[in-house]
UniProtKB/TrEMBL annotation:
PANTHER family for this protein: TYPE III PANTOTHENATE KINASE
Pathway: Cofactor biosynthesis; coenzyme A biosynthesis; CoA from (R)-pantothenate: step 1/5
GO CC terms: cytoplasm
Residue numbers binding ATP: 18-25, 142
Catalytic activity annotation: (R)-pantothenate + ATP = (R)-4'-phosphopantothenate + ADP + H(+)
Gene Ontology BP, a term: coenzyme A biosynthetic process
Coiled-coil boundaries: none
Taxonomic source organism: Nostoc punctiforme (strain ATCC 29133 / PCC 73102)
Cofactor binding mode and count: A monovalent cation. Ammonium or potassium.
Positions of K(+) binding: 139
Name this polypeptide is given: Type III pantothenate kinase
EC number: 2.7.1.33
Cofactor: K(+); NH4(+)
Molecular-function GO term, any one: ATP binding
Amino acid sequence: MKPHKHPEHTDNIWLALEIGNSRLHWALFIGETLCSGWDTDYLRESVIQQLAECQTLNDLLEKIFPQGESLTNTLPLCPLLIASVVPSQTAIWQTYPNTHVITLDQVPLKAVYSTLGIDRALALWGAGKTWGFPMLVIDAGTALTFTAADANQCLVGGAILPGLGLQFATLGQQTGQLPLVEMQNSPSLPPRFAINTIEAIQSGVVYTILAGIKDFIEVWLQLFPDGKIAIKGGDRTLLLNYLQALYPEITARLIVEPNLIFWGIQEIVMGD
Ligand SMILES: Nc1ncnc2c1ncn2[C@@H]1O[C@H](COP(=O)(O)OP(=O)(O)OP(=O)(O)O)[C@@H](O)[C@H]1O
Ligand SMILES: CC(C)(CO)[C@@H](O)C(=O)NCCC(=O)O
Ligand SMILES: [K+]
């Protein structure tokens, strides 16, 4: 998706950038309103350096979308709020003049540990402030993560495992005779007991991830019977379709929201 709105109130425009392990996620805000969100690949370092020379938001958006449409009006460069879990990328983006990198100490979540990923903290904060605590966030991204906070907005903790794409990739790359299985966007589940290699890999990865998600949700609801659960990340739709087929009651409880990190950033930037 590309920005298509033509903002009228130009003084409170800002951009949010989430630097993930696979790609970039963008949001264009006017004040508290998220006008547009979109994903891109990583940008080449030379392109990022050119951003520093941009005079207007229009120039900037043209760099971010070389083939994209641009805004009609000429707006000054706006602030860029960055949440990154890729330090080498964060450094490159500092060349943009109006950059603010969000750090863990800016997230009001209590009892965090120092190496907690900023994406996990922001997504949990955004979800909890929007739908209430206790909150469990499932991020089906490059890594699949569970991150939870109690009613006092204290981190309960969580878990990290390789995401769907990473599981397929490592099997293909680190073995002698397993093929690289592409992410199947087919909504139907693979056969449980497969009799060919590709479906055996699909079965193994998909059913164990789904069983793992179900197990974490069940334990979460034992701990916090009125706890809420939100899911985000690039594999959310695929996993939701599968979860719906296998565990419809659990799936009905899930809040699906790709922009949780942006809601977290918005909460912190705009305050209460
Ligand atoms: N167009 C796409 N490009 C890349 N990955 C995609 C795309 N569409 C779906 N995916 C899936 O999204 C997953 C990555 O999720 P996502 O984009 O949320 O991760 P990320 O934000 O880059 O990484 P992180 O987990 O560090 O936040 C991959 O496993 C992949 O299967
Ligand atoms: C787990 C990932 C990779 C998920 O994007 C990121 O949040 C991260 O690098 N976290 C640091 C380790 C932690 O959260 O405990
Ligand atoms: K790493």
